[in-house]
Amino acid sequence: MTSLVQGVHHITLCPGGAQQDIDFFTQILGQRLVKQTVLMDGNIPIYHFYYGNADADVGSIATCFPYSRKPGRAGSGQLSCTSYTVPNGAIAFWKEHFDRHRAEHSGVQERFGTKYLRVRHPVGLLFEMIEESGDNRNPWTTTQIPRDAGTRGFFGAVLSVRDVRDQESFFVDALGFRKVGVDGPYHRFEVPGTGPGRIVDLHVEPERAPGSWGFGAGTAHHIAFNVETDDALVKQKAVYEEMGFTDASEIKDRFYFHSMYVRSPGGILVECTANVPGGFFKDEAPDELGTKLLLPPWFEDQRNAIVSQLEPITVPEENRPRQETTSAPRPVVAAHTTPGNEPTVPLSRYKATFDADKQTT
């Protein structure tokens, strides 16, 4: 099939504490805090943090729900590792950097002939730096992470499965990936096209118990792939349903993009996402990204109730945007809209009630 998918859009994870997560992403991984908002499902205020490269590019964004209310269970049927690209030769820098911060890491390894280094988040989530030439995306830099070593964005992701067959069929037949190689227990798939962020590695772990599916600290929640328009979301939903994946969700309004979800046969939750005009810059100037809590308009009237239930956080001063390291934002390719700027497909929103008096711990 011709793929509607253009590569990874974002990856969503469930850490534990909010400040712990900010510190890890900004200090250990050297990411830019792009957005502070909240989870748009349910009636319990949960932060939703977005981290990315200097330009907040699609394909660089890790999003996190700090979910300290309960632990998750890591296992098969989940995204098991988030993969970033770094320049050739940068692995030695990252090993020294992780050692300096006493971050648990794997040491230098190799997969499909390429060097990589894995590091563990305090809550257990795994990330890896993969050397790749030719990725010209603009890295975020800090006082400890220079431009010639910083992450460019996603290389892709590693997904844990007990059996490769059904999950392989889903990626090839439902999403339009092609299989490009096998290296031991790793089966590599690639979205046709050019540019970074188009790789998925299925890690076959037949003895690994299934992981939990809901929100829970220490687990990955879903992987999201970029599609061009809202109409492409509708077409992708039709592809799922004609193949028998009839639990594909309605198309949801996530304010910065529109989303549609399906549970894949290996258990991994897959989202397809279409941008909206302005993307992450629709409610913040480029040099102010991530500096304050922003809410979708339909939550704004409950701001006091939301804020009163959130863990206070401090944004590291050096992670605040700085003119010399932040280029002008790249144009955001928006989902198809009418001349009146209205979506062409029906969108779902959950109208939550954040009543602090009724919440339980």
Question: What's the topology here?
Answer:
Layout: E1 8-14, H1 18-28, E2 32-38, E3 47-52, E4 61-64, E5 78-86, H2 91-100, E6 105-111, E7 114-120, E8 126-131, E9 153-161, H3 164-174, E10 178-183, E11 186-190, E12 199-204, E13 219-227, H4 230-242, E14 252-253, E15 257-263, E16 269-275, H5 303-307
Parallel strand pairs: 1-4, 5-8, 9-12, 13-16
Antiparallel strand pairs: 1-13, 2-3, 3-4, 5-9, 6-7, 7-8, 10-11, 11-12, 14-15, 15-16
Describe what this molecule looks like in 3D:
By secondary structure, this protein is α+β, with helices and mostly antiparallel strands. It has a single domain, classed as Roll (2,3-Dihydroxybiphenyl 1,2-Dioxygenase, domain 1), CATH 3.10.180.10. 14% of the residues lie in helices and 29% in strands. The protein contains five helices and 16 strands. It has helices spanning 18-28, 91-100, 164-174, 230-242, 303-307, and strands spanning 8-14, 32-38, 47-52, 61-64, 78-86, 105-111, 114-120, 126-131, 153-161, 178-183, 186-190, 199-204, 219-227, 252-253, 257-263, 269-275. The strands form two sheets. It has an eight-stranded mixed β-sheet with strand order 2-3-4-1-13-16-15-14. The protein has an eight-stranded mixed β-sheet with strand order 6-7-8-5-9-12-11-10, covered by helices on one side. The longest helix has 13 residues, at 230-242. The chain is globular. The termini are far apart. Mean pLDDT is 90; it is low at 334-341.
